[in-house]
Amino acid sequence: MSLLHCISSRGFPILVEAASPICQVEPRSHSIYLFYQLKDCQYNTINSQSISKYMRILHLSLTNFRNYVRLELDFPPGVVLLQGDNAQGKTNLLEAIYYLSRMHSPRTSVDRELVNWLAWKEDLPFARLVAQIQSDEQTDQIELSLVQNSTGNVDVNAVGVRKHIRVNGIPKRALDAIGLLHVVLFLPQDINLVDGPPHLRRQYLDDTIGQVDAQYCRELQHYHRVLTQRNYLLKSLKGRGYDEAQLHFWDQRLVQHGAYLIVRRQQVIQQLDEFVQRIHPQLTGEMERLRLEYDASVQLERRPGTAYQMALPTEPGTDTASASTRLQDVAALFADQLRAMRVKEQEQGISLVGPHRDNLRFLVNGVDMNVYGSRGQQRTIALSLKLAEVEWTAQERKDKPVLLLDDVLSELDAAHRRYLLDAIDQAQQVIITTTDFTPFNEEFLSRATLWRVCAGRITTSMTNSQ
Fold it and tell me: Which of 23, 69, 177, 434 has the smallest count of CB within 10 Å of its CB?
């Protein structure tokens, strides 16, 4: 059994115990329906103000990771301020922590790049990351190793690596280890979430939701596998005629896994939207109102006189459908639109509708900031989104995440810097990188633990005058 996250008729998040979805196809209409066995619905009214549990890192061990040949580091609670010049290893440390949380790097999709270049001269090149973490009263150890594939290839650039994961000494799949250490990462590149291409926003949603929802990770993995097979079939059928039976088989599975992604994305965007409605006006002196809009590829509601349009609930009580009914509705709409696009998809040889073509839009006072926002507005929106993610993660996990800030304060003006510092002051553990201490006042520095990084070595005893 697994937990299905839905929204109750009162607008509260609920956790529903559900069996795996069973997809059934009605032969004549080709409609696809999802059925879940539901029981023990419970309202979850936890809010971030009532959260008393916390997550923190106790110890970090790195071997041959990026420019860290060997590192053993005990982390204190509270704020750790990591100072150093550029290209010394500040961001690499945050990357290592994020990697242990999400099982992938926020900077590269090629794991081979994470192994220290000197390690490739050894007989068996490898990198190893280990974190001891504490959540409330429980202590766990996450270990991740990257080992060279046994290919016999002497070209370092052509050699791949295998990923081995252990939790408390027991081998685990990546899907089972994601989110055991939950973090929120702030990067200067976060502005790309607003002005960048849609795939960055989809990836952000997938990473954010996947950290708290294991079922979402599984459905996403299955969806992309099915999508690859369906696209291959569409390309093979291009110019050769129509094979309804084969397409129908893959349509069934695409809807089976895609419906959950759509419902979950809609719910999470609604919840993030509620947080940014409070956060963004405070960042802009009450001058701007920010709304998040889920621009779903599968149009989720038909309105009189219009095509399918997305109806994103924004107030409690507007989403009254049960979890099973909502999934069935989304699945039916998805199946209908796949059928309507079938000829066009076959002509182009690619799947044209589904979660893989979703988008997230940011509206300030009704204006689309993805297109019309200034650089300053887009940076503030990105900050609002990440602060909303902190509160949403704490609400969903019922404990506070570790915050990682990579030299983001230097990109902010004084007012935004002060707001961010006030926000992170409430966290149990924060790790901040900086090239100098100028953005921080004396009172903040007096409460922080100050470390210095130089050429992959960290000095853990220093003062702000060093």
Answer: 69
pLDDT digits (tens, 9 = 90+) for 278-332: 999 999 999 999 999 999 999 987 544 333 333 433 333 434 447 778 899 999 9
- Predicted model pTM: 0.84
Domains along the chain with CATH numbers = 2-45+190-309+321-370 (1.20.1050.90), 50-182+401-459 (3.40.50.300)
The DSSP bridge partners found for residue 334 are: none
- In angstroms, the CA 72 to CA 59 distance is 7
- The Cα 195–Cα 382 span in angstroms is 10
DSSP output for 60-110: EEEEEETTEEEEEEE--SEEEEEE--TTSSHHHHHHHHHHHHHSS-SS-S-
Looking at residue 385, its amino acid is: L
pLDDT of residue 423: 86
In this structure, of 24-33, 229-238, 424-433, the range with the lowest mean pLDDT score is 24-33
pLDDT at 461 over 80: no
Q: Hey, what are 299's tokens?
A: 């149009």
| pLDDT reported for residue 238 | 80
CA distance 294 to 333: 16
